[in-house]
């Protein structure tokens, strides 16, 4: 380990690895990772198959300031990303409509990034406890008391989610310590817990059904999974990115015209397009006794219509231990999207999830991590050479 570098990259996740991979060889850099190996989240992502990106990268999929996010994703878009990995032997396949997954699973992604970053010194198991500003730049001190110095510092330390994979608040502490505003962080892409009024959902643990969830003006049609602790599944995870305290609305019968069932002879529970356990539980909850559809009275049909707009206020979320990402983070107001450099402190950069930019499910978060890192690498290269 040297003691002085041009650039220290704090965090060996998606963004830190991509930044290291794109640095000019003339830049003396160190990639610092608290875990024994870099890329822990890439390894578990997408069920081990890493959903790298999406064919439709649109601003509506991100929570954050579009005027900050757009130029970054335009400069390094999904075609660039897919081509970058393709050239390094990583095959991807488009699935579920528009999501790109890694055919050879996540280790292939980590391998490609590590190979491309091999010109940068990798310092594993160096968990940064403190960063001090010094005359020559920044001093990073590990939990074991080792230290190193760098002229510039790129904070690529991610969010607060999944602490068991190495997450820490160091990025937010550095930002706060240098006068940056922090947008209140919260777990996102996470399941939601329930109030007592919805405790009957718990009896459905393990059941999945297609729904449409609405949070204010946004809506997602996808699966909802009843879980022991509350509700989860892709529709809920996406909704959690936008949910603030208050009500959400779930359409448990998306696209179903109940009027068409009214004259049917068959029992309601067999005709409702819901998993059988869910149909029974909802009928019980709505105090409707099952029977031939044509024998149901108007009030029962009215209550059933309520399943198109079932409103309730979740109690909270499953928390950081289960959240795929953290929303909020370092405010983008004081970061330049052309360079990812702090406007408050020259030589300090922020990339990836530590920033107040969070995407929905579908590859949007890796795209952000990789694109922001590529923009930062250009700026560091230009400033070192220039
Ligand atoms: C289970 C799961 C599945 C996911 N699947 C997908 C997916 O398929 N597609 C997608 O787009 N997104 C997915 N995500 C989100 C995606 O992984 C993140 O948004 C992305 O990894 C963020 O990249 P990053 O580089 O900003 O942060 P990270 O990848 O989190 O990297 C930050 C790194 O910094 C290190 N670090 C933190 N603090 C310190 C410290 N004090 N000292 C030293 N090192 C430190 C951490 O150990 C970590 O390696 C998933 C997340 C999870 C948890």
Characterize the structure shown:
This protein has 386 residues and is α+β, with helices and mostly antiparallel strands. It folds into two domains: 4-186 and 325-385, FAD/NAD(P)-binding domain (3-Layer(bba) Sandwich); 192-317, Translation factors (Elongation Factor Tu (Ef-tu), domain 3, Beta Barrel), CATH 2.40.30. Helix content is 28%, strand content 27%. The strands form six sheets. Strands 1, 2, 7, 8, 9, 10 and 22 form a seven-stranded mixed sheet that branches. A seven-stranded antiparallel sheet has the order 17-16-13-14-15-12-18. α2 (40-48) packs antiparallel against α5 and α3 crosses α11. The longest helix has 22 residues, at 364-385. It is elongated. The model has no long low-confidence stretch (mean pLDDT 96). Flavin-adenine dinucleotide binds at residues 11-16, 32-35, 38, 40-41, 44-46, 50-51, 127-128, 156-158, 161-162, 166-168, 170, 324-325, 352-354, 363-366, 369.
